[in-house]
């Protein structure tokens, strides 16, 4: 029987939910973000797991890398493409992890790209540079607007 795993990853803990083909919960528990705690939980299920889904959060690198190194098939959920909470009145970490597993089981998971480790540092630097350029532009425009608002004259900030 194939199993499907969803992990709701947070800064200091993760909720792991494993469901079967009938959408029944086989395992559900919160764990510290420690591979020595998480790996022993998942290893007994490794041969049955079709894959493990982790949401693309700011801290997914370590977990996905370690589980891939341990031989698990990893999937990165695109959070902007998931519309989980529409119509739901109650959600929590366990229902979030279960939802990830459920969507994966149904074949409806919108996946993000798992960038190879070797390329991440360059990608992260380019993203940071892009963010800083946008921030600089916003600051220059703010100064120009402030000057114009208070003096009625335009200002050209060519030096920036």
From TrEMBL:
Q: Which GO terms describe its biological process?
A: DNA transposition
> InterPro entries recorded for this chain?
Transp_IS110-like_N, Transpos_IS110
The Transposase IS110-like N-terminal domain is annotated at 5-147
By what name is this protein known?
A: IS110 family transposase
Name of a matching Pfam family:
DEDD_Tnp_IS110
Q: Which GO terms describe its molecular function?
A: DNA binding; transposase activity
- Name its species: Candidatus Nitronauta litoralis
